[in-house]
Amino acid sequence: MTDVALITGTSSGMGLHAAVELARRGMHVVATLRDVGRAAPLRDAAAAAGVEVDVRALDVVDHDAAARLVAEIEAEFGRIDVLVNNAGLGAVGTAEQLSMEQIQDQLDVNYLAPVNLTKLVLPGMRERGGGRILTVTSVGGAVGQPFADAYCGAKFAVEGFMQSLAVVAERFGLRVSVMEPAAVASAFVANAVLPESSGPYAALLDAYIVRTSGAFANAQAPESAGAAIADAVLADEYRFRWQSSEGATAFVGASLADTDGSRVLGFTRPWIAAG
């Protein structure tokens, strides 16, 4: 019997490649995106890999639509074996520059949407005594970064939720994990919300953007990050925390070992220094 995987955010980047890779490895993949009219790259990549993906529309912040989709998949296939929460939204700006609406958007997409989908699939997985939930967070879920206040805040929140859930879910045969990529070449940066006015933060923000642009110029390929997601989903070993590259592992590790917070502040301060 073919396992069924539901993955969000598959219009481009690592979500697209994770969907194709999971299908290539034998899963029936329900790949969702807000606008199925933008599914041509996903379908083309699947065709090039010699596989098919089951493309369906889902705006992850529409919780009622998510409930209908999960019920539809479970009625059609009898179960959902894997959930990959991949859809995400970026925002650049420090606290004073961000509106509460922008902060809410970060929480809606990066925290509440994966929480909702996780809640929706949990009953069926628990009753069957098995299932895997992987939430793609970011190194920003472990390392707070300048001008990423709302984004990192939402990613920290979803990691805390999933880590708290993990040991309870494990008692029912479920594996709950997070994947923490570093910079991945994708449309994510182009889609990030930018502040309308830099004001007194202009020089600091300019320095940050220069540094970040350099990081994304040397970003991990989305094919590689997508394969890392598939590896984590299908791994025999269970780990709560995965990273998509050696660089991401080193970056996250620096924060997790930083018991007084000085290490992270030490290596992020230069990000907003010009020259």
Write down the overall mean pLDDT: 93
Instruction: Identify the overall geometry.
Output: globular
Question: What percentage of residues falls in helices of 4 or more residues?
Answer: 40-55%
**Category from helices, strands and their pairing:** alpha/beta
Instruction: Outline the biggest β-sheet.
Output: 7 strands, parallel
Word description of this protein:
- With 275 residues, this protein is an alpha/beta fold.
- It has one domain (4-272): NAD(P)-binding Rossmann-like Domain (Rossmann fold, 3-Layer(aba) Sandwich).
- The chain contains nine helices and seven strands.
- It has a seven-stranded parallel sheet, with helices on both faces.
- Helix 4 (100-128) links the parallel strand 4 (82-85) and strand 5.
- Helix 1 packs parallel to helix 2.
- The longest helix is centred in the middle third of the chain and has 29 residues, at 100-128.
- It is globular and about 55 Å long.
- The chain starts with a strand and ends in a 7-residue tail after the last helix.
- The relative contact order is 0.14.
- The mean pLDDT is 93.
Concise structural overview:
The protein contains 9 helices and 7 strands, in the order βαβαβαβαβαβααβαα. By secondary structure, the protein is of the alpha/beta class. The chain has one domain: Rossmann fold (3-Layer(aba) Sandwich), CATH 3.40.50.
What labels would you give this structure?
12% strand; alpha/beta; 275 residues; seven-stranded parallel sheet; Rossmann fold
Per-chain topology:
Elements: E1 4-7, H1 13-24, E2 28-33, H2 40-49, E3 54-57, H3 63-77, E4 82-85, H4 100-128, E5 131-136, H5 149-170, E6 174-180, H6 202-217, H7 222-234, E7 241-243, H8 246-256, H9 262-268
Parallel strand pairs: 1-2, 1-4, 2-3, 4-5, 5-6, 6-7
Helix pairs in contact: 1-2, 1-7, 3-4, 4-5
